[in-house]
Design a protein that fits this description.
Layout lengths: L3 E4 L5 H14 L11 H12 L5 E6 L2 E10 L9 E8 L8 H15 L4 E6 L5 H9 L3 E12 L2 E11 L17
Parallel strand pairs: 4-5
Antiparallel strand pairs: 1-2, 2-3, 3-4, 5-7, 6-7
The protein binds coenzyme A (COA).
């Protein structure tokens, strides 16, 4: 069964936080040590919504099964055409194509909005699921930063994966930059 994808809404936030918080508490995909409360999560959502980039929700069997969004890779203007993706799938919905559907849709939506590269900053070299997911969506590994993070009592490597979007680097980007300076 294919997940249904749609833009995220403010009223989804409690369910999205319920997916994210256990990953912060027990996982290494995010290097926060404590989950944000709903208010802080809402501020992040509002800030992301003020950008041109998508925030999508996936539903399976009428329930929110996961979400994914894109944001500018780094704040300086020169990075305006490069986005980073973030994908979180509820534990009960994993291994059923939800992550791939979300990432494939982010790739298309970001390319349509003028992005030329997408980067995944995978917060743990042991995160085989995320590395496979990105590999299956056309990303290739471009680097590893050893032991640059610390969480749950151990140093963590970061794996960088990247894929071009649209015309990639074959032509100059459209101006003005998406989202402005
Ligand atoms: C990583 C994550 C988003 C994958 O989502 P998912 O819906 O389970 O993935 P899908 O079912 O769409 O699978 C996509 C690909 O990843 C592979 N994959 C998924 N889970 C896997 C696992 N546990 N081990 C190995 N490969 C896995 C699938 O086999 C598939 O690869 P294929 O195309 O070669 O067959 C999900 O496990 C998750 O939310 N993890 C915690 C948060 C996280 O790590 N997010 C990523 C941050 S960078």
């Amino acid at each position: 069964m294919q997940p249904l994808l749609r833009p995220a809404r403010e009223r989804d936030l409690p369910e999205l936080l319920a997916i994210y918080a256990p990953e912060v508490r027990h996982g290494t995909a995010s290097w926060e040590w404590k989950p944000p409360d709903l208010e802080a999560f809402g501020r992040r959502f509002a800030a992301q919504q003020a950008t041109p980039w998508p925030w999508l929700v996936a539903e399976l069997e009428g329930r929110i099964a996961g979400y994914g969004y894109a944001s500018r890779y780094r704040p300086r203007i020169g990075y305006a055409w490069c986005v980073e993706d973030s994908i979180y799938v509820a534990a009960w919905a994993r291994g059923r194509g939800v992550g791939r559907a979300l990432l494939a849709a982010l790739v298309v939506a970001c390319a349509e909005r003028g992005a030329r590269q997408m980067v995944a900053v995978i917060g743990d070299s042991a995160n085989v699921a995320s590395i496979r997911l990105h590999g299956s969506c056309g990303f290739r590994e471009v680097g590893r930063l050893p032991a640059i993070g610390f969480k749950a009592g151990r140093w963590l490597d970061s794996v960088l994966m990247q894929r071009p979007l649209g015309a990639g680097a074959s032509s100059p980007p459209d101006l003005p930059p998406p989202g402005g300076p």
